Amino acid sequence: MAFIKCSDLAVGYEGKAVAEGLNFEVNEGDYLCIVGENGAGKTTLMKTMLHLTKIISGTIEYGDGLKPYEIGYLPQQTITQQDFPASVEEIVMSGNLSKLGLRPFYNKAERAEAKKNMKRMDIYDLKNKSFRNLSGGQKQRVLLARALCASTKLIVLDEPVSGLDPKVTLDFYQLIKKLNDEGMTVIMVSHDIHEGLKDASHILHVTGKQLYFGEADKYPESDAYKLLTSIELKKGAKA
Amino acid sequence: MIDQLLYYLEYPFVRYAIIVGVLIALCSSLLGVTLVLKRYSFIGDGLSHVAFGALAIASIMQVTSTTLVTMPITIIAAVILLKGGQNAKIKGDAAIAMISVASLAIGYMLMNVFSASSANVSGDVCSTLFGSTSILTLKSSEVMVCLVFSVIVIATFILFYNKIFGVTFDENFAKATGVRSGAYNLLIAIIIAVIIVLGMNLVGSLLISALIIFPALSAMRLMNNFLSVIITSAIISVIAALVGIIVSILYSTPVGSTIVCVDLAVFIICYIIDAIKTA
Fold first, then answer.
1. Which CATH number fits domain B2-273: 3.60.21.10, 1.10.10.10, 3.40.30.10, 1.10.3470.10?
2. Contact across the interface for A73 and B176, Cβ inside 8 Å
């Protein structure tokens, strides 16, 4: 049994499918990259796996010791967060929120978890800094540390490098790679098909339907890859 | 001046006014931060107009305690506005504007058509909208009601502080990790409605949203983390209410507008401090 297994899944919103015929699974230790054009249903698929959007048809099964809500999520930043007065520590700590249940305050173990993940992301010395005053790369590390508090098994990243400069982007990919090497399962939605795909173990290419799913090594030989790169080339030619 | 103040403080109604004023200021400042950050500032304003309409209905029905009518109606309106926010046919701001002006119109109409003391309709309306002197005519039972509700609001806020932070900062993240954010949004809506109904006594329904928004905005200029923003906001709000009430007693100005003016002055000072710091 896999961590996540999608069978004949259709995803969309308001009852309308934007992507269908999705059959894939994510196993422990995988690094799955979901690629596709804008509006192709990547983000909707991810939100469906996170229970933020209802399934249109088909099934998603969670197993192999992964509970349905045991997923750390690194969302795209919202406008609200731009001027939000919260310290790094407060935000990372909120990754433990679901463990609280009816308990009102965090306990020692949860505080320790937050501290550990801040150190892991190298943001511990920023812990009293305000989120709104951080750089783009620092903000992503904070949100990643929060995701790590929420799950020790699987993290889901939504376009994590958009808006970051090239050097910070490479650093961030290295950080993800390191987490994956340490055993963390990673699902990343990305439109960066060059650097982004380098570390992935599996690729899922979605454009309305599933164009490719399989090992990353074999992806460059597939028709789906040629399609995507030809679009890139055309865009490049226009620009 | 001090002598004069001490002289006034010997009257129970003055002491009641100060107790109630401080409690309402404290409660309203707590959730202001969440409202501002979730871009819900206008919901407070809309709800206060709903409370005005509800109060008009209550006074026509001549119920003994108007809170019994205004509280449930305002809570229902709050739930509808917050729930419908994302997926309603009529988008958020338009829905709020619609509900708020409709409630004002219906409330004023009802008061005119059915009012028993038709001689002083405009006086009644004015005191409901601006609070005028109603805070100085509180009975001890009303003070008790305010005290009980304030304790409930403050206790709920403290117990759910971490969850309120979570759904304010990032609702989707909270939801994805299995936190029932819908339930907490509902809780926030209910607390806001309770605060607005309580605050109508103090500053009236037109000005209550100022009490919710201003201290939060001032504190956000000065502080950099959520907890200290909340605490600062509470301190600012309580001091502004105290100063406002004392000034209004000494110089016989209208209580509600005096408090709001003090809040505005504090905001301007905080804004300037922030501008100097960043420059």
1. 1.10.3470.10
2. yes
